[in-house]
Amino acid sequence: MADIIRKATREGYGRGLKELGAEFDNVVVLDADLAGSTKTGVFRKAFPDRHFNCGIAEANMMCVAAGLAATGLVAFASSFAMFAAERAFEQVRNSIGYTRLNVKVCASHGGMSVGEDGASHQCCEDIALMRSIPGMTVLCPADEVEARKAVRAIYLQPGPVYMRLGRLAVPVFHSEDYEFVIGKGEVLKDGSQVAIIATGLMVYEAMKAGEILASQSIDAMVINMPTIKPLDEALVLHAAEKCGKIVTCEEHSTIGGLGEAVCSFLSEARPTRVRRIGVQDEFGHSGPAWEVLKDFGLCAENIVKVCAEFAREN
Amino acid sequence: MTSSDKTQLQIQACKVRMGILLGTYSAKCGHPGGSLSAADMLTYLYFREMNVDPANPKDPNRDRFVLSKGHTAPALYAALANRGFFPVEDLATLRKDGSYLQGHPNMDSVPGVDMSTGSLGQGVSCACGMALGLKYQGIPARVYAVLGDGEIQEGQVWEACMFAAHYKLDNLVIIVDNNGLQIDGWIQDVMNPYPIADKLAAFGLAVQEIDGHDFDQIEAALDKARATKGKPSAIVMRTVKGKGVSYMEDEADWHGKAPNEAEYRQGIEELEAELRELEAQ
Q: Fewer CB within 10 Å, N- or C-terminus of chain B?
């Protein structure tokens, strides 16, 4: 594990945008004074004439993106998740969701892993908000490779998309030949006693947990779920049927996120016992990212603990 | 503009006003007051200013219109219908279940509507995006956005103005319908946005103030806007809310209330009399 490469998903976004820009003239990118942080600056450096800084005005930026898309362009609009999904929610809902325009809202600095900035910037409600918009596709890539491949996939799929990206460098576990498909989950480890369904940076934690659980003779299935909406229902159903117990893991509130999406589906399709690891209806706090994540149980150790207890229950 | 041209515009404006009354009366709700104040500007835009084709409403080279004050959809629909985008009779289906004429403009369902609006402050930003997108693609089309004078209380409007000036969107015209009234009363009593022209100028727009019911002034202002290079234009047009229907003029009550049958008849009779007079000229 020592030689593992760590990169933030936002870096994959920046690289993916640059590749896309080289291939397609109709890609335009908007940012709200955070181009260095969101990594749209990588695109700006290569294509300065189609990167538009909107200043610190996210509400205007979302509607400008809609207007650009209305003239036939594909607009990528970026800021921190707190300001893209939360401050500008109603703009995204009415000018992008309702219009079904070709705007890709790609928000970095999602979740608790913003760390030191603290609660005002730790956005743990974005997925819930974006899921609630009719027709909105919601993604949360797990590593740099997946984020980069997702950029191309969302360009090729017409209509609004929300993609959550992270600030923190996390292990890159996908290889270059990984094929990303919107709406498809990925079984990283097969298992029979409990299925861990994770998204974003929790996926690697779930992989580590799966190995530790195996050493404790608990056979856990590990699933990467990069698309929260539309949910890969077939895969969730398969996991429920095979394991009978599901643990969801997300760096997001348990209200409205992946866990709730899985529960909503299963409660109608195949009632199954579920444990949800996530932020339990509370605000975050400052601290080094990995320490803060641990404070909220967003780590392999807690996944192991929850899964082990759950697996032993009748 | 010849006097005959002007009479023709006045005739069309009269028909647009009749369409506004038909729509709101049939719907038993809607926003006639601010629709009537913008009726002359919309008539001029659709019948004289803009390069649009009812047979090809999605032409990528067309001029764009955004009704940022989306609640005055009855005026936009009446202008589009009279311009030939869809049958005038359909105005009677406004706001009804199953009708394509939604309470606020919808770009997917209504031919000729370029942007879905209704949530105040957003349309003008969308118009900025359109103007930028057209410029980026080298399309020499223009974008027109009509805002309410109450709407400019939304902070996003000023974000949009800053953006338009920063990106030198000289293909954009922001038109403020200064009828002076919003739902709760006179704008300066609710939340004073004055001086409107000075504020727009301070944000970097080339501002003109006109009488929004005078076609000569509308023409001169839009011509001047077209000749203005390097900065976006703004036209603050002084108007009368409810203009053209005697009992609605300058009454805040008629912001969001539909005429009953007697009121509808009276309004139509007034407009029919005006129409007869214009057609006799």
A: C
